[in-house]
Amino acid sequence: MSETIDLMVEGGKASAGAQMGQALGPLGINISDVLLKINEKTSSFNGMKVPVKVIIDTDTKEFDLEVGTPPVSELIKKELNLKKASGEPNKNKIGNIGIEQAIKVAKMKQDSMFINSLKAAVKCVVGSCSSLGILIEGKIAREINEDIDNGTFDKEINEEITEVSPEKQKKLKSQLAEIQEELQKELEKQKEEEEKAAAEAAEKAAEGEEETVEGEEPAEGEEGAEPKEGEEPKEGETAEEKPAEEDKKEEK
């Protein structure tokens, strides 16, 4: 009888952590031996997350491994030597790859994508680039996919070109720098507009409070306020301000 355990490990650096212990410990196999073999088979994926299947014979305690390819996002980051994706992919672009690099990643993952053409695989890679904050040929995913559909990159895809020339690498870096600068200017402009709008709103609110205070009726007892009916005029008030009925009583 056999049992299969699915793991996601760092290429060449799998360690006996809690995940490994919980998955393999109950099966009674030597975890150190499993780790050694995993690291041997995944050493070429150094720095990337790699899916690994550990197939164990529960009777003999022998095991075998099936190493998959890293996720598309990991392969893309490896191409650009990036440790993590952009936290704000729509606002912060952290990389720019050539179509050749997209083709390279697509070829590595095509068999596991369940699609029928390399072109379709390339478009899947382009979609992953978008979520990471990475441009392709200096363009966002929607734009580059339109180019792919229009046949702009048919030569590269049909010939399965996967290497970017040094000249093109310089161009890609230059494109990224220009786009990052433009995005930064847009963000600064947006911030200024938001601050201006907030200041205007605060000013209007303050003006509204002042108008309310100016338009209030004087409170009872304050200068300009009328005394209540039957109330003796307060010190400083004139006899003319006394109620008419009290005047009549005094005359009698």
CATH architecture of the largest domain: Orthogonal Bundle
The percent range for helix content is 40-55%
Number of strands: 5
Please tell me how large the radius of gyration is.
Answer: 38 Å
Anisotropy-based shape: flat
Ends apart, CA distance between termini: 123 Å
Beta-strand percent range = 5-15%
- Arrangement of strands in the largest sheet: 1-2-3
Care to give the gist of this entry?
By secondary structure, the chain is mainly alpha-helical. The chain has helices spanning 18-24, 31-41, 72-80, 99-113, 118-132, 141-149, 154-158, 166-214, 244-251; strands at residues 2-10, 49-57, 63-67, 95-97, 134-136. The chain folds into two domains: 2-67, Ribosomal protein L11, N-terminal domain; 72-186, Arc Repressor Mutant, subunit A (Orthogonal Bundle).
Q: Could you walk me through the main structural features you see in this protein, from its secondary elements to its overall organization?
A:
- The protein is mainly alpha-helical and 252 residues long.
- It has two domains: 2-67, 2-Layer Sandwich (Ribosomal protein L11, N-terminal domain), CATH 3.30.1550.10; 72-186, Orthogonal Bundle (Arc Repressor Mutant, subunit A), CATH 1.10.10.
- The chain has helices at 18-24, 31-41, 72-80, 99-113, 118-132, 141-149, 154-158, 166-214, 244-251; strands spanning 2-10, 49-57, 63-67, 95-97, 134-136.
- The protein has a three-stranded antiparallel beta sheet with strand order 1-2-3, with helices on one face.
- β2 and β3 (63-67) form a beta hairpin.
- α5 (118-132) packs antiparallel against α6.
- The longest helix has 49 residues, at 166-214.
- The protein is flat, with a radius of gyration of 38 Å.
- The mean pLDDT is 84.
